[in-house]
Amino acid sequence: MTEMIENKHVVGSRQLADVVVVGAGLSGIYQLYRLLKDGLNVVAFEAASGVGGVWFWNSYPGARVDSHFPHYQYWFSKALWDDADWSERFPAQPEIARYFNHVVDKFDLRRHIHFETRVVSAVFDEASGLWTVRTNKGHEVQARFVVFNTGGLSEPKVPEIAGRDNFAGQTFHTSRWPSAGVDLAGKRVGVVGTAATGIQLIQAIAPVVGHLTVFQRTPNYAIAIQNPKLTEADLDAMRSSFDELHAQVHSSRGGLYYPGDTPPMFDDLPAEERERHLEAIWTEGNLRLWAHSFADTGINPAAAACVSAFVRSKIRARIKDPLLAAKLVPEDYYFGTRRVPLENGFYELFARDNVALVDLREEPFQTMDAAGVNTTKRHHDLDVIIYATGFDAGVGALGQIDIRGNAKRSLKDAWEESLRTTVGMQVHGFPNLFMTMAPFAPAAAICNVPVCIDQQCDWIADTINFVRRKGHQSIQPSAATEEAWMAHHREVSEPTLLAQNKNSWYRRIAADGTRRELIAYMGGIPRYRQVCDAMRDSDYEGFELT
User: What is the model's pTM?
Assistant: First the structure.
């Protein structure tokens, strides 16, 4: 039976809306707010039972943000900043989840969201210019516009291991952590993955479990976090700096503002000056070393080698066992060409009697059985296996929905042939379909997300309003406009050192192992914003309007 949606126009068994918003995470919440503020009739669907997206699902022990205070919050409302009462420089998941619930309740958004409801299809009808959106609960909504705010990191990936389903113990993925928590006390636990999520989890559970086996494929550079408690003076300074900081972060390359100059290595700084420069940044205990050390770190191998050697020395100094250091210290890629985590005592944990490291490069997974995992060298008895193995980045959630545009062409099929977008927000052949945090925009990977989605949600709302105001039926980028954007993306992104690291989620690899596009746009926020603004200000020259 089709479930009816209250307070919406109804024709037969179908509901009518101006816009369907899919997802109530960080971008979905703001997108809903902005469209409602513009006076549109909006229906929102969320697969979870609550808001927050990644901060709803990723409630694993140790989860916290790595954008430093006060950058990780919404920028569309000074009133929200005045309300904010953060307790730490890097807030943990429960505090961030409370923040999103506060935002939804402050602006009375919850009543517009249908929770525990997964969108299963969105099909465009060329004759009417309408999308028909269907859910797993029988909703059927017709809308002129659809906005997918499904998140760039939302669909979990689990490694294919022979016999994986044979394991008789408990199995979890960090991005689907039970809201009631998991009792790990005294148990034999295996964690697969040592990237940002794995590091946070391992630090939190190592003192609790009976024995912890860490399965590592690729060692990671990590920065020692400095996470002091905030004072009332800190909060007052935050509230008084809103206008200034708003301007600074929106003109920064990655949505985080760091004061001071960033010298290029090409200035031939003496070695002692470089060392002092890096030491000063290191003591800050944030991501500045990644984003704001030398101006040319992302393109100059000499600068990247300098920073990489510095971070390696910091890691080695904390690991007493040289054999262990050889496994934990990265040697075969530059610092910053993979996601850089923050850590708090991670490297020291491996000296504990109840923690063991398994280097999957030396002994890969072979099979799983009821009692645990077999590598090529031995069997590991486990009660619990936790996958901290990341996501199908950029496209995963969209690939789970049957999205069909002109001529009923599937978006999934189109992207299997050629992954492409226009500024990461529209795709040729799919009129009136918009998306945030999709490939080839800063929000896809290299950005403090609240800043990037602030810009994306506004651009989408402005575009929808333009179509309606001008009396058009639909808008989509032309094939030429899309190709021009993809060519620009490759021009500014592929020459970077980040693009040269093929072993990173920033570069999408197909299931058959074939090379795919680098989804991370490396041109920076100002350049991206300039392109998007030019599209809007030209009344969308290069777009197809009907």
Answer: 0.95
Tokens representing residue 215 in the block: 């399965």
Q: Which residues pair with 475 in a beta bridge?
A: 545
pLDDT range class, residue 487, cuts 50, 70, 90: very high
Token pair of 260 as six digits: 């001071």
CATH architecture of 9-155+392-545: 3-Layer(bba) Sandwich (3.50)
HEC letters along 176-195: HCCCCCCCCCCCEEEEECCC
Query: In DSSP terms, which residues pair with 384 in a beta bridge?
Result: 170, 189
Report the side by side order of strands in the sheet with 372-375. 365-369, 372-375, 379-381
Answer whether residue 8 shows pLDDT above 60. Answer: no
394-422: average pLDDT: 93
Q: How many C-alpha atoms does 36 have within 13 Å on its Cβ side?
A: 18
CB atoms within 10 A of CB 322: 8
pLDDT for 9 equals 52
Helices (H) and strands (E) counted in the chain, each on its own, are 17, 23
- Nearest one of 280, 236, 296 to 82, comparing CA atoms: 236
What is the rounded (10 degree) CA torsion for 429, 536, 52, 395? Answer: 30
Percent of the chain predicted with pLDDT > 70: 96
Q: Say whether 224 sits in a helix, a strand or coil.
A: strand
Listed by start position, the domains of the chain span 9-155+392-545
505 pLDDT exceeds 90?
no
d(CA 240, CA 507): 40
Say if residue 68 is exposed, middle or buried (CB neighbours under 10 Å; 0-12, 13-18, 19+): buried
CA distances to 2, 142, 210, 493 from 47, in Å: 17, 19, 35, 33
Label the pairing between strands 543-545 and 475-477. antiparallel
Q: How far is CA 317 from the centre of its chain?
A: 31
Alpha helices (runs of H) in 196-316, residue ranges in sequence order:
196-205, 232-240, 242-250, 271-282, 288-291, 301-316
